[in-house]
Amino acid sequence: MWKFLLLNLVLALTATALDTINISETQGSYGFAVDYQNNQFLLDGQPFRYVSGSFHYFRTPRHYWRDRLRKLRAAGLNAVSTYVEWSLHQPQPDTWMWSGEADLMHFLNLAQEEGLMVLLRPGPYICAERDLGGLPYWLLNRVPDIRFRTNDQRYMGYVTVYLNEVLKKIKPLLRGQGGPIIMVQVENEYGSYSACDIQYMVSLQQLFSHHVGTDALLYTTDGALVKMLQCGVVTGAYATVDFGVYSNVTKAFEIMRIFQPRGPLVNSEFYPGWLTHWGEPFQTVGKRAVKTKLYEMLSVGASVNIYMFYGGTNFGFTSGANGGETFSPQLTSYDYDAPLTEAGDPTPKYFAIRDVIAKYLPMPNLTIPTISPKGDYGPILMESIINLFDPLARTLFGTNQITTTTLPTFESLDLPYGLVLYEAYLPQGGPDSSILHAIATDRALVYVDSHLVSTLSRTQKTSTIPLEQPYGSRIQLLLENQGHLNYGSGMEDFKGLWNVTVNGSPIPQWNVTGFRLNTVKPLRNLESTRSNHGTLNNGPVFLKGEFTIEGKPLDTFLDTTGWGKGVAYINGHNLGRYWPLAGPQMTLYVPAPYLRRGQNELILLELEFVPRTKKMTFVTVPKLGNNTET
Fold it and tell me: Which domain of life is it from (predicted)?
């Protein structure tokens, strides 16, 4: 181990020597570098310390970017940190998205206008509790045996194309060019990944350095453990650590000093809250603990990035999942118990943090934010439109309908998310009582002759269920992708059904239909019909309701209490998954830009249960669990 430490110490000292040169090159002009002699950063040649907040532009509508950035600045923060999400900007190998909600350059310019420096984290892997850690799903169908986050040349080929595109675009906004970007992260917490491919990190650093040069400081972020920094640091990038309120500040920075002997102390991810999975209590961190630990770090001269300062929302199907012993998909909400709520409202934690920052940094002359008004738009009666298994629904939403002897994955069907229906007819003559075995990634509703009989679950480790009189019948397995793994080993997380047998015998032929569900526009011309309530034994149902807004639309929350599990769309905008039966999230955040004056439309795809009232309600206060301040 000490041999490894010595190697990393040499690497760190080499990086120190290189970055010392940057100081002289940036003095008297724009630039950002490290003054190793005095253990401080230099911004345009002057001593500088940052207190930053993480805010991911892809987790709130573009309409709110300036509002959230200004609230960061009003809290005394002088920098903002954001990931760049590969899957957002390159949704297909030959498609790039840089406008509208994906307008990264606009976001960076707004940050500069609001007086914030930028810590940019382009990945390629970002984790961030996002689907596949921000990697595009199509990597899994282009190279099925690909090795993520290694020097696998097939993977690196796609990474190089992506990073070249990003780094060329952001170059004019690097600090050395007069822009707001002072630091650019190389990969993300690589020390937490089991591959520990040093050559991979070297290749990435060289690629970043080619574009960034001395115009910004390259850095790495890893947990404050020796084994993590052993694999995470790389020559030519400044080594930083991350830790939360329950860590010992002195010990954490001592670990950093093993690999980064000189230069300013940095906590690149200080956690004022935490992430939450479906089916567990909402995770909270008390404001007093946050305030105490932040004060402790700032009192020793450290720079700090607060992750998250504003969390936002995993709209659509963008939330990821954690693995390990249990598969745990994450909530649609990314409120994170952060200082700013999912709707951008300040919390007591916001003001506690502001009080600490005011002791160390000059405070801006900005209006202190207040809680914004919310819209109380009442209940909406939801009426059925069409069953998902109906031939018309299959025509409108079905994609890649095939007949096959082998079970395809979502990825081989070119489906990034949604549902896949696997159907087969069992021959007559078998026993009345049978056993179905299937491994589902991630959750499958099982039907016999279009009647719901059970559920297969990766989370619950349910892979075997009894079937009564299935022979001579049609068996249907409707599989839901609940989010690709975003963290840890085994991230090559294919979605599908595996080892499917009835009484130990495989099924010879399948009819397969994929449902992408990225839009509900085809339903707008369909009339509502009378709908039943209770368990949806005959398959998922699309439902529609309409409501009217008088005056300017306001943010609101859609209360899904009493319903089963599904997806909600407001005026065509996918609000994300709801699952009140699992909790703790009961409401979906509805931003005002998704609403309009006059008539509005809510569409649901409900998978499992419709309450007797057949109503959903808009409320003014979110229901995320026990998120009380302590």
Answer: Eukaryota
Provide the residue type at 97 as one letter.
M
User: Is the separation of the CB atoms in 532 and 351 below 8 Å?
Assistant: no
Look at residue 18 and tell me whether its pLDDT is greater than 90: no
Please report whether residue 278 resides in a domain: yes
Count of positions (residues) in the chain: 630
**What CATH number should be reported for the domain holding residue 602?**
2.60.120.260
pTM, two decimals, is 0.95
- 203 in the same domain as 74: yes
pLDDT, position 527:
82
| 194-201 CB contacts, 8 Å cutoff, 24+ apart | 194/488, 194/489, 195/147, 195/149, 195/150, 196/230, 196/231, 197/149, 197/150, 197/151, 198/231, 198/234, 199/151, 200/149, 200/150, 200/151, 200/156, 201/231, 201/232, 201/234
Q: Same domain, yes or no, for 530 and 504?
A: no
Known catalytic residues are: 189, 269
pLDDT in tens, 171-212: 999 999 999 999 999 999 999 999 999 999 999 999 999 999
Contact 114, 68 (CB under 8 A): no
Q: Does residue 16 have a pLDDT over 70?
A: no
**Residue 404 near residue 509, CB atoms below 8 Å:** yes
Give me the percent of the chain exceeding a pLDDT of 90. Answer: 90
Q: How many domains does the chain have?
A: 3
Residues 231 and 278 in one domain: yes
Domain enclosing residue 459, as ranges: 406-508
Question: Is the domain of 167 the same as that of 280?
Answer: yes
In a domain, 227, yes or no: yes
